[in-house]
Amino acid sequence: MEVTQEPPYLAADAAFGSLPAFSGGSGLGPDIIPTAISGSVTGPNAPDAIKAEPHGAREVEDSERRAKAKQRRNKPTLSCLECVERNSVANLIASADRSNGPKSKARFVTKPPSRVRKASASSSIITSPVTTDNGWATIENRAHRQSMSSNGSSPYLLSNVPYSKSSPSNVFGVGLQHPFSNYWTCQGGLPEVISVLPSKEQADILIAKYFEVVDPVYPFLHRRTFYADYERFWALPSEQKNQTDASFMALHYAMYALGTQFMQFPSYEERSQTAEFYCSAANQALRVYSYLNRTSMRAIQAMLLMAYFLMNDNHASDAYAWAGIHLRQAYAMRLHRDPDIVVPDASVLEKQQRRKLWQAVFFQDTFLTVLLKLPPTATHSDVPVESLTDDNELSMDGLDSCLGTHSRVENLMSISVIAPQACEPLDPPQPHHIMDPETMKSDVTYMRCMWHLGNIVQENLSSPCSLSLPLTNSTRHKDSLIAAFRRLYKSFPAFLTTLDYAVLQQQVALNSRAIRQNLFLTSNYFHCLMLLHNAENEAQGVATNIKSALEAAHEAIWAFFKLWSLFESEAGVWWVFQHRAFEEALLIAHLLAIPSQHDANGVTTLDPIYGKAKDDIARMMEIMDRYGGSLEMHKTRKDVLQEAFARIEG
Fold first, then answer.
1. What pTM was estimated for this model as a whole?
2. How many CA within 13 A on the CB side of residue 271?
3. Residue of 20, 126, 401, 540 with fewest CB within 10 Å of its CB?
4. Mean of the pLDDT values across residues 400-405?
């Protein structure tokens, strides 16, 4: 049987030709013939018949059974990869037992503070999971302090997506179809995936776009070694390409898909179809790789990027579920463990790449769950943040090794471990294959800062929000949390904390990479600070600080406005940035709808931040008109925001 769906075609740029046609292939694969199992116990009193057997017959039967027990089973050969890797779980358990000795430093088991749990349990007010801790208002009646949703789901999602309703709100970004379209035949395998590669010229453009736009904010790939493997692959003849590691092809296609999302196309639909085709190819390569029972750093890198692609492609619920798979695989590969403990003999480069990949997994999990108000999963780790050092990043140790094939979860007796592939020295790099040392250092600094921020966010925001617990249990507790966030932010270097738009505009031509990092960190930090200022706990006398919440929301949403002004095409793609900005605008509208304070003469007294906040909502709605296109998600967001804006006094 052939799948008749045809892939989309690239027609946006002169550099892009049409995708090659699929090679033919048909059939459902080998026939599956179940083995007939015959034989039955005859007669209604079979047990009695067995008891009536002569003693000698039982002895003969017992001797035959013992003889069969002594027969040796057929053991798999070392070249049988599928059979060998069935023992992977047992090896992981055994190695984990050896690693978790008295020197183990396992930590970061995140749970809500005990005082919060006790307060929520003893309070007669905070007893229902229906009420959220942020006092959000419903669309129908935002004047009342009620939850927009039920059962403790995110107040911003307007429904309990993705699992509780058959037709959830598209504010969240719920794809209506399977995220990976099926273009593939049953027997095509990896050659079929490779047959639809873009041309080398097209691939170069997409990879360059990836490193220009995506890599600055998620810099977990080692650029030099990736490009070395990339150029080596394209230099192979067609027959040898078909023998390439399937996880490496998945990484290729995931990067093509993200690169395509940021390319200019005649229409949104054409860009979306082309990017979705590449992501489908990445998924098919992972299926060929058998990603559920094997993994590698390349496989996790590909899956991590595919999750961001799904978010940008209006499949946020699919991205959340997909991220759960690669997070479990990251645990299975022990990326959450200090590499100096679990892989002490690895090269400096491999250890550094393990730390960076875990940071990327942790970062995605933490800040996605903050948006969705769902429990974080990357909660167990003993990787020290400060081990992500500049010296490790600049080290040449391991540069000539086969980095992409390291750290597989596989049997220690597999052929790839006993007889590992010979590694060829890296070819001399081209200028765009490497980064200067200062950029590498700034990347590591950015990752450490986001890691520190993620730790404090996961502990104090993600976990309590996922359980519908109040963020603070007293005014003093709230003040101390806010002070901790501010101390952390002040410890970050100036290139990540500059807020002056004029300064950022001057620097964007010189160092656009650092500007992108600045805007992503600014957005995440002030969004979380906004949630803290907005937190309330009526039972403990903790009230919302309206002015401070508006100030934090203003800085957070202005990070999106700056991104729009400096990188407009990119701002229209990043789902995480758009959704945070939508939440911030909605919270601003809610806070502005609260009755104003009056002085002794009955005159309304408003801080200048109120006027700025109102302008922020108006500007957000104006921008949504431009980047939304025809997607139902954007239309729903705008309708909700307009309704909230209409309720503001004056």
1. 0.75
2. 21
3. 20
4. 53
Burial 373-398 (b: 16+ CB within 10 A, else e): bbebbbbebebebeebbbebbeeeeb
In angstroms, the CA 442 to CA 435 distance is 11
Q: Side-chain half-sphere of 280: how many Cα atoms within 13 Å?
A: 21
Gap between the Cα atoms of 294 and 349, Å rounded: 22
Of 4-13, 234-243, 552-561, minimum mean pLDDT range: 4-13
Give the number of other Cβ atoms within 10 Å of residue 569's Cβ.
13
pLDDT tens, position by position, 618-642: 999 999 888 755 567 777 888 888 8
Alpha-carbon span 413 to 407, nearest angstrom: 14
Query: How deeply is 488 buried, as exposed, middle or buried, from its count of CB atoms within 10 A (0-12, 13-18, 19+)?
Result: middle
**Residue, of 583 and 139, whose pLDDT is higher:** 583
Separation of alpha carbons 314 and 408, rounded Å? 32
User: Identity (one letter) of the amino acid at 221?
Assistant: L
CB 482 within 8 A of CB 549: no
Q: Could you read off the pLDDT of 199-232 as tens digits, one per residue?
A: 999 999 999 999 999 999 999 999 999 999 999 9
Token couple for 506: 């001057």
Q: Is the dihedral of CA 256, 258, 262, 268 positive or negative?
A: positive
Answer yes or no: are the C-beta atoms of 211 and 513 closer than 8 Å. no
In this structure, how many other beta carbons lie within 10 angstroms of the beta carbon of residue 54? 8
Long-range residue pairs from 618-625, CB within 8 A, at least 24 positions apart, any chain = 618/645, 619/561, 620/557, 620/560, 620/581, 620/582, 620/585, 621/585, 621/645, 623/561, 623/564
Which residue shows structure tokens 């048909």? 26
Can you name the residues that pair with 542 across neighbouring β-strands?
537
How many Å apart are CA 456 and CA 467, to the nearest integer? 17
Contacts of 351 (CB under 8 A, 6+ apart): 339, 340, 343, 392
139/162 Cα distance (integer angstroms): 19
Which residues, 6+ apart, have CB-to-CB distance to 583 below 8 Å?
156, 371, 527
**C-alpha dihedral, 557 to 558 to 562 to 567, nearest 10°:** 0
Identity of the amino acid at 339? P
Q: What is the mean pLDDT of the chain?
A: 76
Please determine, for residue 158, whether its predicted confidence score (pLDDT) is greater than 60.
no
What's the mean pLDDT in 309-315?
91
CA distances from 593 to 137, 140, 487 (A): 10, 14, 31
DSSP at 647? T
3-class DSSP string for 505-565:
HHHCCCCHHHHHHHHHHHHHHHHHHHHHHHCCEHHHCECCCHHHHHHHHHHHHHHHHHHHH
φ, ψ of residue 509 in degrees (nearest 5) = -75, -25
